[in-house]
Amino acid sequence: MAASVNKLAPGRILIKGGRIVDPWAGLDMTGDLLILKGKIEQVDREIRAAPGKDLLRIDASGLIVCPGFIDLHTHLREPGFEDKETIATGAMAGAAGGFTTLCCMPNTEPSIDRAATVEYILRKSSDAGSTRIRPIGCITKGRKGTELAEMGELAGAGVVGFSDDGSPVHNSSLMRHALEYSRAFDLPVIDHCEDLSLSKGGVMNEGKVAASLGLRGMPGAAEESMVERDIALARLTGGRLHLAHLSTARSVELVRQAKEEGLLVTAEVTPHHLTMTEEWVTGRKDGMVEDSVFLGLNAYDTNAKVNPPLRTGEDIAALIKGLNTGVIDAIATDHAPHTRTGKECEFDKAEFGISGLETALASLLLLVRRGDISLAGLISKLTSGPVAVLGKSCSGQNGFKPGNEADVTVFNPEMEWIVDPDRLFSLGKNTPLKGCKLKGKVMMTLVGGKITYIDKNIRTEVKV
Amino acid sequence: MTVSSGHRKQNREIEKRSGTTGNAVVQTEWHHRHLLDTDILSREEIELVFNHATAMEEILGREIKKVPTLRSKTIVNMFFEASTRTRASFDLAAKALSADVINITASGSSVEKGESLLDTVLTIQSLGADVIIMRHQCSGAPYFVARNVKCSVINAGDGWHAHPTQALLDMFTIHKHKNGLKGLKIVIVGDILHSRVARSNIHGLAAMGARVIACGPPTLMPVAGAFPAVKFEYDLDRAIQGCDVVMPLRLQLERQQGGLFPSTREYSRMYQVTPERLSRANPGAIVLHPGPMNEGIEISPEVAHGPQSVVEEQVANGVAVRMALLTLVLLGTSYGSFGK
Asked: What is the pLDDT of residues A179-199, one digit of tens each?
């Protein structure tokens, strides 16, 4: 049935009986959503639509219907690393994960430090035809950290922010100027906070687990000292600072203070930093089991190697609290696909990163089931939160207001599935969730009213 | 993981049933296809290794020091990092058991041509290896290999992580001198943070009921809590007081460039095991060193070659312990006698 639906380009879509959650409207109710010619037409308790060949009815009872997810932090790898991911495969993976917009990071080859690269990505993404791709431009030319990129040209070409992600801007004076200069465009400067002299050679969180595994650690202080510096520069310049993938409790506290002070600072956290501890590197996925104090053959799981590294349970608790208190604005995947050879090797030599677009929602729903965060709260961190971080470049995206582009995600919070990397749309099969049973599955994703992903288990009906 | 812990329990049960807590060796069985670290070994299993090693010593003392136990088995020494004694020791051990031995080193092999570790070991497996003995500069590399091959893997040292055969030969040496390990006070001195020998000894000694004190400058110590059974001490004079065994570790001289200590001069003043310091230990205390030694830095020449040093004996015991381990890993406890 799914296949026949895909061939249709329904003029009208009626999503019936779902739990509709719209963070912008503060809406959380069971009802119907009607889409007409790619736009939101109506949200109501019950909508009766005139039958017709152009009407696709979706039975959404038991499902959640919400605005499409927006990922602030995706590595699409194209141009330059098409063996890891392409814009087309990344866009498809995003759609399967419920994302309708992906902000792609500029650590490509060439990097996104000039308009031509932005245009290339936008053209490629319109060819790929599904998920909206919003490039992030470089802060410095070639991400080298020595000279500012032509931020004005990049802004004109349509970037939604600036970042040298993967590399921090080490030169504090240059970072200061980036925060000042970007004020002209009202776009955020996104920093990957890491003092490289403290983290040099590190492959996981510094602490007890690294000590027992004999691996070089990256201390939390490597992140926190840069967070602290960046906040000082935001204070100095009045620039808009966005802190990528926070991973430690102390970082959350620093951002809390900065926000209290009224600085223009926002922050994001990834699903893996919210759900996985450093123990995952040992191959133990459910925390320490009493009887398994020695290492098993699954130890040194390179799929759990990520930067910033997976931290501790206390850090996770602080990150969750940060989400609930509004200190952390958004959840972003930091989707970092890699080839098999980049991960099937010695731990020290393996690449950093987790392929996360397609497992994000299901891993986050664990937090909802545990009562760590409300469902509406979670959805806001994937929708209105990221839009608030981006600011005016995404101001048109504000939920289910009639006339808005119909970017919609429909998911089943109860459906169980087992993560089989070979079945991911992403070329990046690198996930520590391999073989894990997750609960929560995207059923349908719409971008501008067009179906970009539909699960075979969804109940649809075409009225004639 | 669960399989092995099951075996641990099983061993305990067998012991309980037979009511021979003091003499459980007869009943203890060996279930480990790989030997990647000592953390997986119970006290009974370590004693089993000692008993087998004693039998192997007897073979090594014969005029014709060769038995056919591992005839037709292929043992591959795969050393990605420099080694003299460990490699030679495994080589001799395998040959004394009549196994066929192939030596592969990173230099001069396809590794130099950029072959991945996975492809290298799969090739070795296809050549018919029964055991891969591997030394690698990356912590955890033997776990990665063991996940991907059907043959046995013995870890001959991985990065900073583990060196189980060294730890077992150290413990065997102590065991012979002190008639057991339980209750002994053992001081490991030096760069604990970067030492695979220290880590494997810590696990093994804890299982045997010894008290371990790790001593060195704070920059060369692992974070607090990583090894709950170990007491950490920065003052060697205090640590060495009344101990039974002193084990200085080799100081990697490049750590000084990394800013972890000011100079080798200061290091040796604070942490060198000297006759004066050794006099604070219990009478009859012994000194071990995993080698190669930096005489005059972590150990004074007088101690290194003095009456309390058992360094040369360690090397000899290494062959017997490795013969025991090769036999256990390949044949388990099911084989017969050594044909006396």
From this structure: 999 999 999 999 999 999 999
Binned at pLDDT 50, 70 and 90, residue B18 comes out as: very low
Assess contact for A316 and A242: CB atoms under 8 A: no
Rg of chain B, C-alpha, whole Å: 20
pLDDT digits (tens, 9 = 90+) for A387-415: 999 998 888 899 999 999 999 999 999 99
pLDDT tens, residue by residue, A245-291: 999 999 999 999 999 999 999 999 999 999 999 999 999 886 444 44
Residue B21 domain flag: no
CA–CA distance, B29 with B44 (Å, rounded to integer): 9
What pLDDT sits at residue B6? 39
What does the block give as tokens for A401?
A: 């207001």
Residues of B with Cβ-Cβ distance to A207 under 8 angstroms:
223, 226
Tokens of B214: 């790790």
**ipTM more than 0.90?**
yes
User: Which among B147, B161, B222 is the nearest to A297, CB-wise?
Assistant: B147
Active-site residues of A: which are they?
334
pLDDT for the residue numbered A293:
66
What's residue A396's pLDDT?
Answer: 84
Q: Give the C-alpha distances (Å, rounded to integers) separating A105 from A210, A451, B235, B237.
A: 29, 25, 50, 55
The answer to whether residues B198 and B261 belong to one domain is: yes
Is B233 part of the contact surface with chain A (CB cutoff 8 Å)? Answer: no
Place of tokens 């990665």: B144
Mapped onto helix, strand or coil, the DSSP state of residue A212 is helix
**B215, B243 Cβ separation under 8 angstroms:** no
What is the C-alpha to C-alpha distance for residues A53 and A288, in angstroms, rounded to an integer?
Answer: 56
Residue A101 phi, psi (nearest 5):
-135, 135
- Cα A225 from chain centroid (whole Å): 24
Count of residues making up chain A: 464
Question: What stretches in chain A show pLDDT beneath 50?
Answer: 1-8, 287-291, 463-464
Q: Give the span between the Cα atoms of A171 and A174, in whole angstroms.
A: 5
Distance in angstroms (rounded) separating the CA atoms of residues B34 and B332: 11
Q: Which residues of A touch B161 (CB under 8 A)?
A: 213-215
Q: Which residues pair with A217 in a beta bridge?
A: A204
Residue of A nearest to B117 (CA): A345
Pair B257, B300 in one domain: yes
Integer CA distances (angstroms), A169 to A134, A175, A227, A270, in order:
22, 6, 12, 21
| Secondary element (H or E) of residue A377 | helix A375-382
Q: Do B39 and A345 touch (CB under 8 A)?
A: no
Domain assignment of residue B210, given as a range = 165-315
Q: Torsions phi, psi of A33, nearest 5?
A: -130, 125
> Structurally, how many domains does chain B consist of?
2
| Same domain assignment for residues B153 and B263 | no
Better-scored residue on pLDDT, B40 or B16: B40
Distance CA B50, CA B208 (A): 12
Let me know: does A244 contact A106? Beta carbons within 8 Å: no
Whether residue B303 sits in one domain with residue B182: yes
